[in-house]
Amino acid sequence: MNPKYLVILALIIIMVVGFAYVQSPSEDNSEEYHTYSQARMLMDTDVTITVVDNNETHAYNSIEDAFMNMEKASNLLDSYNNSSEIHILNEHKETENASDDLIHVIERGIYYSQISDGAFDITVKPVLDLWASKFGPDQPNVPPTEKEINNTLSLVNSSNITIEDNTIIIEKNMGITLEGIAKGYVVDRAIMSLQENGIENGFVNAGGDGRYMGEKSDGQEWSIGLQDPDKKAEPITIINARNIAVATSGNYERYYNKSASASHIADPRTGYPVSHLISATIIAPTAMEADALATTVFVMEEEKGLEMIEKLEGVECLLINSEKEITRSSGFAKYEQLKD
């Protein structure tokens, strides 16, 4: 047997309460189900895939297939990868024979822009690039001027993306970033791979954004602790997760640089970083939907974001504003663990 099947991987995830137990080789075809887990770096974040299975070999083969599907999808959608489809589209403003993955993600990106009145827009890349160019080594470390922002905003409009058959075209000087939606889609691709291999219980977690199938080996739901923005030991709340996805957007971890304190999430409508929320957590049927809506609601004003979520079937949210006040959508509480 390959030595890697003899390794016990102990993994503590801040977002997931649980443990991984690796069965012994003699139990490889047992009727008893156990939990198997592996973690890798992908998309510049820690990715964990955990499955419940009664066959060790099948479990790890399924995990390996899921990682391969994740890597394939992420390589297509990573704008920093010079060979990716999205990079080629940004460079040449046109790509022929685009993959179904890229077309699907871009079409969904356009949809989220439509339902949010532009609060989510995958063509915001020129704005993000403008802000990034102002901070860092050998940069002025001052915000862009109003004129610079207004000039760049003229390039932001996802309705100017043309998709005909398998050809995608964008206008001159436009650029697309899929950072607000691609990670969720890649997680969904991994879940799809696990399901194709017959896995019914497990989860894929990518840097805190995850999708959860079925239940743990003990029959209990998966548990997800939502991080306190003040990084206290106790989570704000714990979500019981069964057949849902959870994603969070926040401005308390990533900045262009510490002195600028400018959020990495800019409003595509104004060109300026947003600051009225500290974090937005979304529960949705798929990880792509949760990922995109977390970014969308984070950009929107609190009341408008909440109003939009209430109209979407199977979607709930928990928002923390700049005053550290917590607001829940009407159905969020049904996913929370009851406190003793």
UniProtKB/TrEMBL annotation:
Gene3D superfamilies: ApbE-like domains. SUPFAM superfamilies: ApbE-like (SSF143631). Its EC number is 2.7.1.180. Coiled coil: none annotated. InterPro entries: ApbE, ApbE-like_sf. It comes from the Archaea. GO terms for molecular function: metal ion binding; transferase activity. Its cofactor is Mg(2+). Keywords: FAD, Flavoprotein, Lipoprotein, Magnesium, Metal-binding, Transferase. It catalyses: L-threonyl-[protein] + FAD = FMN-L-threonyl-[protein] + AMP + H(+). Pfam families: ApbE. PANTHER family: FAD:PROTEIN FMN TRANSFERASE (PTHR30040:SF2), THIAMINE BIOSYNTHESIS LIPOPROTEIN APBE (PTHR30040). This is FAD:protein FMN transferase. It comes from Methanohalophilus mahii (strain ATCC 35705 / DSM 5219 / SLP).
